[in-house]
Amino acid sequence: MHIRGLIVLLFLLISFTVLGSGYQLRMQSASNAGLGMAGTALNNGSASIFYNPGNLAFMKNAHEFSVGSGGFFRRINFLGSGDKALSEANINAAFPFYFYGAIRLNKNLVFGLGVYTPFVNSVKYADDWAGRLLVQRQSVNTVFYQPTIAFRFTDQLSLGAGLVYAKANFNMQKGLPYGEASSVEMEGEASNIGYNLGLFFTPTDHIAIGMSYRSQVQLNVTNGRAVFHMPAVWNSILSGENTFSVSLPLPASFDYGMSFRMDESFLFTVEFNWVMWGIYESLDFRFQEQGHLFDSDNPRRYKDVLATRIGGEYILSETILLRGGAFFDPTPTDRFHFAPDDVSLNAVGFTIGASVEPVENLHIDLSYVHAVGLKSEKSYLPTGFSGSFSTHDFMPGIGVSYRF
């Protein structure tokens, strides 16, 4: 049985698959990142606050706290259609983090609090690149605060629910069609409420089933600050600063997973994530002053996608766990309305991870996710922009948890 576990884990480590996902990032636990970012049907301890609140009631200890971070590094390669001079290559970085804490109030009831960053985006291009009218720089950073409660109804069934308070910072610079040096810089904040529901069911000692639903959160930036850089001829009709509004959707998702305890050493999981990106139809900007000149409607036409994940965990010794995984996560973007502020491509990737327990109850988790965005021809018809994109993603992660 141990040999079979090692063979399956080796297969997972060298498996290649596809990554897309828009600006959603499921790297919300270093241990789960090593498992193909799956977690819906796993007893994740306090990390269940994000992956499936229903699992939290099966937490093995009375208390658990975990904290971690990672780097999301993406190299974007662009080649403009028919002109090699319009090439672009740059590296963008984001640094997601998480904190989870959970306390067992009695045999069946667990309360937890999570702080995590499930949506991030960061891109930066040269000011004069071919897509300057769409974006020159953009960053979106979100932080979710989620108090959660979970109740175990039987030895096999538990339910959980969390209330989400989401905050976001939005920053963007884009060129304007009033001269090569004309542009607008925008920054603003937004917040809103959502929720996270989960169910966890163990029909046998070796099989677990999990389902979770994360609601949509609509982020509406109002009275954001806009600074215009325009030719001197505009000074008489436009002040340097303005205000703007924009709405950015964070999609709902429904996750379903199963895990199988193959033997005492090896666990395998498979998971499906239905991400409802179809709500992202357009990114529209409205300005308080001179709106008839600067207001813009920017169609996106995203579509819902179904992601598939697999992961395996092997107990090498009493203090060391090895993990591997892979996932298929198709891009939600529309081929003919592909905006380079979110370079989401189908990509080849894999995940690996490990946990060590240097002292009793203290666990250190390490993970690494690597993906190569497959080269694809894209265009944005409203502006005539087109070209080919490819990406390379590097995502190391580290986490520490303490259980007692």
Brief account:
The protein has about 400 residues and is mostly beta strands.
Task: Spell out the blueprint of helices and strands.
Blueprint: H1 2-14, E1 17-18, H2 30-33, H3 48-51, E2 63-70, E3 72-80, E4 87-94, E5 97-104, E6 109-116, E7 120-124, E8 137-152, E9 157-175, E10 183-201, E11 207-214, E12 217-229, E13 241-250, E14 253-261, E15 266-275, E16 282-287, H4 291-294, E17 296-299, E18 305-315, E19 320-328, E20 347-359, E21 362-380, E22 385-403
Antiparallel strand pairs: 1-20, 2-5, 2-22, 3-4, 3-22, 5-6, 6-8, 7-8, 8-9, 9-10, 10-11, 10-12, 11-14, 12-13, 13-16, 14-15, 15-18, 16-17, 18-19, 19-20, 20-21, 21-22
Task: Describe this entry's structure for a reader.
- 6% of the residues lie in helices and 58% in strands.
- 46% of the residues are buried.
- The model is unreliable at 1-20 (pLDDT under 50).
- It is built from 4 helices and 22 strands.
- It has one domain: Outer membrane protein transport protein (OMPP1/FadL/TodX) (Porin).
- It has helices at 2-14, 30-33, 48-51, 291-294; strands at residues 17-18, 63-70, 72-80, 87-94, 97-104, 109-116, 120-124, 137-152, 157-175, 183-201, 207-214, 217-229, 241-250, 253-261, 266-275, 282-287, 296-299, 305-315, 320-328, 347-359, 362-380, 385-403.
- Strands 2-5-6-8-9-10-11-14-15-18-19-20-21-22 form a 14-stranded antiparallel beta barrel.
- With 404 residues, the chain is mainly β.
- The longest helix is centred in the N-terminal third of the chain and has 13 residues, at 2-14.
- The protein starts with a helix and ends with a strand.
